[in-house]
Amino acid sequence: MKGWAQRIDPDCLERAAALRVRLTETPERDAELLAWLAQDPSHGEAWRAVQRPWAFCGEQATSPSVIRLRRAALAHAHNALRSNWIRARLRRTPARLATAATVILAIGASLLWWHYRPAVYSTGAGERRIVRLADGSRITMDASSEVTVRYTADARMLVLVTGQARFDVAHNPQRPFTVTADGRKVVATGTAFDVNVMGPKLTVTLLRGHVVILPQNAPVQPFMFPPPGDALGAGPEMADVPVTGVPPDWSRIALDPGEQLVMASGAPPRVERVDVHRVTAWERGEVVFRNERLAEVIQRMNRYLPQPITVSDPQAADLRISGVFREDDVNGFVSTVVSYLPLQAHQDSDGTVVLTYRQDPAH
């Protein structure tokens, strides 16, 4: 700021800022700008001092919320600068320069802050939500989930912080759509896929189209998706690799429709074919389990319950269960598991249902 005061005449800077605002409001007034720039070389220096941060902000401001903010900032800047301009000429002091420069820089700072601040969408226990994004993409969120969204001119970046969501992506190969979850990044241009984060376990299920799964910090570069049947997308030399199985290189995993990537701590990653209807049962209010540990089943059910269910001992947690349950029927779920498994249930004073292993009286 001090350097500007030493180099640029305050009147020139204020005039440049006022012209910048006027051009945004009325672009056909560029003749006025050209005439002013031709009057003196110092006018060009003042214009560049204003235009550089303005142009940078303009490149970044692509979302509707930023456009609305920019309009509001323009109105504020126009009023402030016009007030200074029509005021009687005061002596040229650094304070006047600081006022004009602060207006321009405040606009830029506000735009950048709003641009880089992601939108956050969340659901509570038992709640589902559909979010329609500006480009036509859609997020269908399961209960107790959170997704952040940040769009720029050349990228669509989302993070599944917790829970489960289905992503229906509007096709745009020049603007990759990425969903980061649990250390992995799912890259798509036009497709539908399901991502589920359950504690230390991550699953990515491709419903249609193509996706590539990369490490979280891997760069997203333009690429052509592999032809059907090429699990790795690594070219003809990998054509004999089966679609379902364990690829030799987990740094880049391509899925075909109906395939699911499963990554869990303490176990090697795997790609397997799944029943898509079962995977998406949560969209119909159902929860489907197939020979799964009770601890994982309880963790999933707790997404839908206002009061949690807990498992009090490892022996109970390791029991396995299969079945289809309504997500809002906690009594039916508890009744079923204590009927078919050696479990007993009691409710604490705070409403928490506790499941414990039931010892056989004969032993």
Task: Report on this structure.
The relative contact order is 0.07. The termini are far apart. The chain has ten helices and 18 strands. The chain has three domains: 115 residues, no CATH class; 158 residues, Jelly Rolls, CATH 2.60.120.1440; 73 residues, Phage tail protein beta-alpha-beta fold (3-Layer(bab) Sandwich), CATH 3.55.50. The N terminus is likely disordered. The strands form three sheets. Strands 1, 2, 3, 4, 5, 6, 7, 8, 9, 10, 11, 12 and 13 form a 13-stranded mixed sheet that branches. A hairpin with a 2-residue loop joins strand 6 and strand 7. By secondary structure, it is of the alpha+beta class. Helices cover 34% and strands 28% of the residues.
CATH class of the largest domain: Mainly Beta
The low-confidence parts are 1-6, 59-63, 88-92, 222-248
Beta-strand proportion: 25-35%
Largest sheet: 13 strands, mixed
Number of strands: 18
Assign an overall shape.
elongated
How is this fold's topology laid out?
Layout: H1 2-7, H2 10-25, H3 30-39, H4 41-60, H5 64-86, H6 94-116, E1 119-122, E2 129-132, E3 138-141, E4 146-151, E5 156-168, E6 177-181, E7 184-188, E8 192-198, E9 201-208, E10 211-215, E11 253-255, E12 259-264, E13 270-273, H7 276-279, E14 286-293, H8 294-301, E15 309-311, H9 314-317, E16 320-326, H10 330-340, E17 343-347, E18 353-357
Parallel strand pairs: 5-6, 15-18
Antiparallel strand pairs: 1-4, 2-3, 3-5, 4-5, 5-8, 6-7, 7-10, 8-9, 9-12, 10-11, 12-13, 14-16, 17-18
Helix pairs in contact: 2-4, 2-5, 2-6, 3-4, 4-6, 5-6
